[in-house]
Design goal:
The complex is a heterotrimer of chains A (306), B (354) and C (399). Chain A is mainly alpha-helical. Chain A has a single domain (3-300), classed as ABC transporter involved in vitamin B12 uptake, BtuC. Helices cover 73% and strands 3% of the residues of chain A. Chain A has eleven helices and two strands; from the N terminus they run H-H-H-H-E-E-H-H-H-H-H-H-H. In chain A, helix 5 packs across helix 6 and helix 9 crosses helix 10 (243-268). In chain A, 59% of the residues are buried. Chain B is mostly helical and 354 residues long. Chain B has a single domain, classed as ABC transporter involved in vitamin B12 uptake, BtuC, CATH 1.10.3470. Chain B is built from 13 helices and two strands. Chain B has helices at residues 5-32, 40-62, 75-88, 90-119, 125-145, 147-150, 169-196, 198-208, 210-215, 220-246, 256-269, 274-300, 307-325, and strands spanning 156-157, 248-249. Chain B has a two-stranded antiparallel sheet with strand order 1-2. In chain B, helix 2 (40-62) runs parallel beside helix 5 and helix 12 packs antiparallel against helix 13 (307-325). An eight-stranded mixed β-sheet of chain C has the order 7-6-8-9-10-11-12-13, with helices on both faces. In chain C, strand 12 and strand 13 form a beta hairpin. Classes of the chains: A mainly alpha (306), B mainly alpha (354), C alpha/beta (399). Chains in contact: A-B, A-C, B-C. At the B-C interface, helix 1, helix 3, helix 12 and helix 13 of B face helix 1, strand 2, helix 3, helix 4 and helix 6 of C.
Chain lengths: 306, 354, 399
């Protein structure tokens, strides 16, 4: 494989992997603490991307303001979906599969509200207005300010989340709620408050991930929905419980989609439309060989279940 | 503005028949047997892809013509050949349809059987659901990238419905509707009988508590595989009619959204109740048609709002309201057979109560 | 129950226009276009072109004392062939329309073809150009915009005239993109060109990074044997994504670029770095014939008067297609078979906003003129720099 292809695809793998990790952590968190495979997560991400776009168009071009407001918008949307829909619904004691449909409906509504808004204000396929600058140009290696924003911010956020869960009282309570909700209730934990905070946290990470994803490509209402399956794939590879596993899964999925795909195209002529299928094939194989996911390999302090 | 009520109704009932088949299939698998099939779209698509292959490769042979490669530069001539055969060789058309249904049922049934056998290795039910979801998407991406099946993302057009040769669009669409509805009715009768049979009782026992059923000496894996086989056959038949109705085969139709739509029908109608599945299919079809008609009328009345988007928002809201106020579906499973859906919490993590 | 109430409201909503119409003889003209999806903005513009034609026709019919009035019924194809099949079906089944303006792309046209042929519905498609849609004797007429068998020659002539030995092609994997790329490879070889490479991308790609990295590698290997250019047969949104990635590629900025008519859009140049990149790449496109006739000026004027903003690209073709469809209905009655029979005659005698609508045996536009475009000095719009006459295969470049 020519070195140019290898280097470029590795840069993409790292960039996309960081974004997948950030999104997959939110999925894992909701899955464990709320016990919901949340399809609406995709739209929390998209909301963040649109907020970033609108802020960059009309308010400020400072990356800190853009990312900050996007994070806030994701958190608010997640919290209000929880208060308006998920909490009243979970009181109805729906089965998990019905709750999955609820999250699908919430996502659908949010997605098409974004469609209506972006249609009305002509916001389709716009770029977040942070000008592209090439910072490193060493023969085949080209790195831009976008790479230098996406990767450090995602990794910092992931580490912060791991510390929050592993080292703080709130983190301990969330983990307790995740492993045994009945006991958490009996022990007098303020379960409702923990749940709301979990939603706030996942929404915030989703919003941030959306803004970063929008920096990487273009903003449109399908942005999150198109990324949700690889993100679920990453979360499943991590066994839907372990933080370290999820992060590993995210980079693995991104590596398959970029570097492995490029190699397959180079050596076997496989077309790029197979790209999205490669991580899925790997997941299916992993799950059949190791039904507990990758968790068995790595267990760290950030795990939600021990 | 003139609304053609007759044609609208025929179209609606055709759509309903197809949706009913899909809903009955999922109701059998999940509602009765408790297998969370989140890969419904694949089994429907197997019917569609089989149709693509038989209509492009087998149909010309049945009519005694030479097969033209359906993709790429010869796409146009191949399309013309299909249309011509469907217009002038009704016998070949019917024979082709019959063979298509048989092959689709066989392939889909076998795939369902083996998927269920393999997927049973998964310990958590959740993983099974997600593997099916992801597996469905994998199959779709493969078909959409690999030309010989349906010309990759170009799709296969010109799949005429079997009565097209009559040359009378109204009559042929009514006949097609009757065909679809009678297949749906037969399937319903079959499903009802299955539910009441000893096998149906075994399935329900399995759904409620697999461990107990196993301890009674029943082969749980085989029972699940059998129900997946039956469900997959029904789904594939639905797939064949689905593409005959549209006249076009594209991998775009068999996305996660289709699976979720079928789930919505079943959950809305009432899990574990065949009549509920039919009702769910009817409600969703009516909703879909009404919003489609409303969209056209809104476009005509020059309201400057993109109703094509608004209809999805409405769909989501109605779904939420239904789940909120009728969580057991419109027609819940009759309590005399079982009250145990509430107890189904064990393998699947239940949403914790507050 | 909430559901029932909602359905009832919907029913009333959907039926309300029934009572709005008066005592005229209404004829429904179907419009099937992508309103949502990547091509949504085209669809919305096209519908306005059709609405303008209908408004003008109705005013003239009223002045002439005729009882006939045209109303439009439009449905969304979502930009996909299956969506297009459903949209045509829905319009025909619910409104009884027999003649439809649309759909937009070749893949959408092919998607709706079976239903149209089977049910005797005539499709008048104003912008579909993929060679695969050129089928004789069917119910599809592709008026005003010529098939790509012509434009492929124009691209080949440009490539050869500019002295490119090799061309690396990036094209959309649909009947339009593949058809144009196939024809281009044939014409380029026939005109004495060297090697070509092909990379196809799936419609609505979330990300093109793999494809662009590969394109760069292709350019690297082709450049070894002579001057190489990139030919991009892409929809606008995809082209923007591709260019954003090409900006940071070490190699793609060093070669020339050729684009298709969808890339002849000022939106592409809104991003200053993309504009600079394309100017540096001596970017050239083959697009719609731009010669300003008095008729085109009159159309632009009444469009602006009617809707408050200037018409979008190709909107005049939708306007022309609607006129051809309505004239055919007025001449032969609102009946699919009759319209199918008379439409080639009407179209052949119709002088549109840019060109005469003569059709060939496939029911496709037979008179093919294209303008050749480059970026203007300010870098914010395209300007015509030449003409290609498809019938005579002659390329004239200014200066």
């Amino acid at each position: 494989m020519p070195p140019a292809l290898l280097i470029t695809s590795l840069v993409h793998s790292i960039q996309v992997g960081s974004l997948y990790a950030l999104m997959a952590l939110g999925i894992t968190l909701t899955m464990r603490v709320i016990r919901l495979p949340n399809f609406a997560h995709a739209e929390f991400v998209t909301t963040g991307a649109f907020t970033a776009l609108v802020v960059s168009l009309f308010l400020s071009r400072s990356p800190v303001v853009i990312l900050g407001l996007a994070t806030l918008s994701g958190a608010l949307v997640a919290l209000s979906s929880h208060l308006l829909v998920f909490r009243p619904m979970s009181r109805r004691k729906l089965s998990t599969y019905s709750m999955l449909l609820v999250s699908f409906a919430v996502g659908l509504i949010l997605r098409y509200v974004l469609f209506v808004l972006s249609d009305y204000y002509q916001l389709f396929d716009k770029r977040i207005q942070i000008p592209l600058q090439i910072l490193v140009r060493e023969s085949y290696l080209v790195l831009t300010n976008i790479t230098f924003t996406i990767v450090p911010v995602s990794i910092a956020c992931v580490i912060a989340l791991a510390l929050l869960l592993g080292r703080t009282a709130l983190g301990r309570e969330m983990r307790a709620l995740a492993s045994n909700p009945e006991l958490a209730h009996i022990l007098g934990m303020r379960v409702e408050r923990i749940r709301s905070l979990t939603w706030l946290l996942t929404g915030a990470t989703a919003g941030l991930a959306g803004a970063l994803w929008g920096l990487y490509t273009f903003v449109n209402p399908l942005l999150g929905w198109l990324a949700i399956l690889p993100v679920f794939a990453a979360a499943i590879l991590g066994g839907l419980s372990s933080f370290a596993g999820t992060i590993l899964g995210a980079y693995l999925v991104a590596f398959c989609e970029n570097t492995l795909m490029q190699a397959l195209n180079h050596y076997t002529g496989l077309t790029f439309s197979f790209k999205a299928a490669i991580p899925f094939v790997i997941i299916i194989l992993v799950l059949l060989l190791r039904p507990q996911g990758l968790t068995g390999f790595v267990r760290r302090s950030g795990d939600l279940e021990r | 503005m003139n609304i053609d009520l007759g044609a609208t109704l025929v179209a609606l009932m055709t759509f309903f028949g197809i949706a009913a088949l899909m809903a009955l299939s999922l109701n059998l698998e999940y509602g009765i047997a408790g297998v969370p099939n989140f890969g419904q779209a694949v089994f429907v698509s197997i019917g569609a892809y089989t149709t693509a292959i038989t209509y492009t490769r087998l149909l010309p042979l049945l009519a005694g013509k030479e097969v033209i490669w359906p993709c790429g530069p010869t796409l146009g001539p191949a399309l013309q050949l299909r249309s011509e055969i469907m217009r002038s060789y009704p016998g070949a058309g019917f024979l082709n349809l019959a063979i298509t249904l048989v092959i689709a049922a066989l392939v889909s049934g076998l795939v369902g059987y083996f998927v269920s056998r393999i997927a049973l290795r998964l310990q958590q039910e959740w993983f099974l659901a997600l593997v099916l979801l992801v597996g469905g998407e994998t199959v779709r991406i493969f078909v959409r990238s690999y030309e010989p099946v349906i010309c990759a993302n170009n799709g296969v057009s010109g799949v005429a419905q079997p009565f097209a040769w009559l040359g009378n669009p109204q009559l042929s669409s009514i006949l097609f509707m009757l065909l679809v509805l009678s297949v749906a009715a037969l399937t319903w009768v079959y499903c009802e009988r299955l539910v009441r049979s000893p096998f149906g009782r075994l399935l329900k026992a399995l759904r409620e508590n697999a461990a107990v059923t196993r301890s009674l000496g029943k082969d749980v894996a085989l029972a699940r595989a059998r129900v997946m086989l039956i469900g997959s056959v029904i789904a594939a038949i639905a797939g064949v009619f689905f593409v005959l109705n549209t006249g076009y085969i594209s991998s775009n139709d068999f996305v996660v959204t289709l699976t979720l739509d079928i789930w919505v029908m079943v959950v809305l109608g009432g899990l574990g109740n065949n009549r509920g599945a039919l009702l769910g299919a009817l409600v969703i079809t009516i909703l879909d048609r009404l919003t489609a008609i409303a969209t056209i009328q809104m476009n005509m009345s020059a309201i400057d709002l993109e109703f094509n988007y608004v209809r999805y928002i409405l769909y989501g809201i109605i779904l939420l309201l239904m789940l909120r106020y009728r969580p057991q579906g419109i027609l819940p499973e009759p309590a005399r057979t079982t009250n145990a859906h509430d107890l189904l919490t064990d393998p699947a993590p239940h949403v914790a109560d507050s | 129950m909430n559901c029932r109430r909602l359905i009832a409201v919907l029913l009333v909503l959907s039926l309300s226009p029934v009572f709005a119409s008066g005592a005229q003889d209404n004829v429904t003209l179907g419009v099937v276009m992508p309103f949502t999806g990547a091509l949504g903005s085209f669809g919305s513009d096209f519908v306005r072109g059709v609405e303008l034609a209908v408004a003008q026709m109705n005013a003239e019919l009223e002045a002439a004392g005729s009882a006939t009035r045209f109303v439009t019924a439009s449905a969304d194809t979502e930009g996909t062939p299956d969506g297009s099949a459903r949209a045509v079906q829905t319009v025909v089944q619910t409104t009884g329309a027999n003649v439809i303006v649309g759909p937009l792309t070749t893949s959408e046209v092919l998607g709706a073809k079976q239903y149209a042929d089977e049910n005797g519905v005539v499709l008048v498609a104003p912008a579909s150009s993929g060679p695969a849609g050129g089928i004789p004797g069917d119910n599809i007429f592709r008026v005003m915009y010529p098939p790509d068998t012509f434009s492929a020659k124009a691209y080949a002539r440009i490539a050869v005239t500019r002295g490119y030995q090799n061309v690396a092609i990036l094209n959309l994997d649909d009947p339009y993109g593949n058809g144009l790329a196939d024809r281009f490879q044939i014409e380029f070889a026939a005109a004495g060109g060297g090697s070509t490479t092909r990379i196809t991308y799936t419609p609505d790609p979330p990300d093109l990074s793999g494809e662009i990295a590969r394109l760069s590698a292709d350019v690297a290997s082709l450049s070894e044997s002579g001057e190489t250019a990139v030919l991009c047969v892409c929809f606008l949104g995809d082209a923007q994504k591709a260019l954003q990635l090409a900006l940071v590629d070490p190699l793609l900025g060093t070669v020339d670029w050729i684009g298709n008519e969808a890339m002849t859009a000022p939106e592409l140049l809104e991003d200053a770095s993309v504009s600079a990149f394309l100017q540096n790449a001596d970017f050239v496109t083959v697009g719609a014939y731009s010669t300003e006739t008095p008729l085109a000026a009159r159309f632009a004027e009444s469009f602006a008067e009617h809707f408050g903003n200037p018409p979008g690209p190709f909107t005049n073709y939708a306007f022309d297609a609607a006129n051809i469809a309505m004239l055919s209905i007025l001449a032969a009655g609102n009946d699919g078979a009759a319209v199918k029979s008379i439409l080639p005659f009407i179209s052949g005698h119709y002088i549109g906003t840019t060109v005469q609508g003569l059709l060939d045996d496939n029911g496709d536009q037979a008179i093919a003129w294209y303008s050749i475009y480059q970026i203007n000095a300010d870098g914010n719009d395209f300007e015509s720099v030449g003409l290609y006459n498809g019938s005579a295969d002659s390329l004239e470049l200014d200066g």
